[in-house]
Amino acid sequence: MILDLNRQRNHRIRLQAIEAIAAFNKHGIRPILLKGGLSLFEEGLDDGLLLMADVDILVQESEVLQAAAILRSIGYVTLEEDRGYAHALTFHRRATLATIDLHRHLGPQCRLLAPAAAQHAAITLPTGGVELAGLSPTHRVLLLMMTFAIFERHYRSGVIPLKGLHDLALIRCHHGDRIDWETIADTIRGHGISRAAQAWLHMANRLLHVSVPSALHETTAARLYLNRCLFQLDCPPLARVASQWGLFSWVFDRIRMDYRYRCGLRGWPLQSARIQHALGILARHNWPRVQRSLRAMMMQ
Predict the structure, then answer these.
(1) What residue spans define the domains of the chain?
(2) End-to-end CA distance of the chain
(3) CB under 8 Å to 101, separation ≥6 — which residues?
(4) Are strands 54-58 and 32-34 parallel, antiparallel or unpaired?
């Protein structure tokens, strides 16, 4: 019953997405679907399998303002103001089931997977009436990997991300021969997220039997990480401590700091950005005295 109701719901979300995409097409914009929104248009997938709250759409940087204006012209409003550092704007319209996330970047990063690279490799989706593309299978895997390692605090907190692992299993099942594992390996090595990526792939292989190259997941660190995750499931107090530490370290992640402050990934500019970010957090929590003290320490 739930599966059937979700099929009906997803059908309505698909019509909602087509309306927005058609409006983009009229102004010469060919958007790229990301994440779960791809399942609305891909052939061979059970259209009731994925539960969705939003539709993620990527447009070129030069098209963001125009695309936002187009969505407003058909009744959408933004849930919050564009603060300049957000990788996406969320749009909502009354009486619709899903929000639309309009992306300028693929998450709070621009080094591992740039929008231009995603657009270049994007694949055309069969839609019947509108022009749109979807993220390539290789880039879908990278996006899921970045979600685990960077965008969410799963890796630092020792959380098993079942939804992300299941999404990887679906991509591997339907597009296995189109995933470029060499590109994925080069990307994770070149940007310092190898340990997190290997841990994620090892979990996918061991828990859901996803076939991935052994060189990308058969490491001692990956095996120990999975044991840690399983042990935390049996020890809730430890899991709570890990969650708090994960939150703290995730907030000041170097890739997230570089995306927001353009500070680079190492050295004093990175540390300075972290201090600036901490001061901003303290200011939002009404701790001006602590803020002044920290600033005085920085001046000494």
Answers:
(1) 2-135, 139-234, 254-299
(2) 66
(3) 54, 55, 56, 57, 88, 89, 90, 91
(4) antiparallel
Question: Which helix (H) or strand (E) is 300 found in, with range?
Answer: none
Are 156 and 245 a contacting pair, CB within 8 Å?
A: yes
DSSP-based three-state secondary structure for 90: strand
Place of tokens 């994007």: 122
Give tens-digit pLDDT for 177-212: 899 999 999 999 999 999 999 999 999 999 999 999
Beta bridge partners of 51: none
Closest to 141 measured CA to CA, from 110, 187, 103:
187
8 Å CB contact between 31 and 37: no
Q: What is the pLDDT of residues 55-105, one digit of tens each?
A: 999 999 999 999 999 999 999 999 887 666 789 999 999 999 999 999 999
Question: Of the candidates 255, 252, 244, 246, which has an alpha carbon nearest to the alpha carbon of residue 107?
Answer: 255
Distance CA 90, CA 144 (A): 20
Q: Which CATH number fits domain 2-135: 3.40.50, 3.30.460, 1.20.120, 2.60.40?
A: 3.30.460
Supply angle C-alpha 39, 40, 42, rounded to 5.
60
| Rounded CA separation 21/254 (Å) | 35
- Chain-centroid distance of CA 25 in Å reads 25
pLDDT at 39: 87
Q: pTM (2 decimals)? A: 0.89
Confidence (pLDDT) at 84: 67
Q: Which two tokens stand for residue 229?
A: 């995750």
Q: What percent of the chain has pLDDT over 70?
A: 93
Neighbours of 6 (CB within 10 A): 18
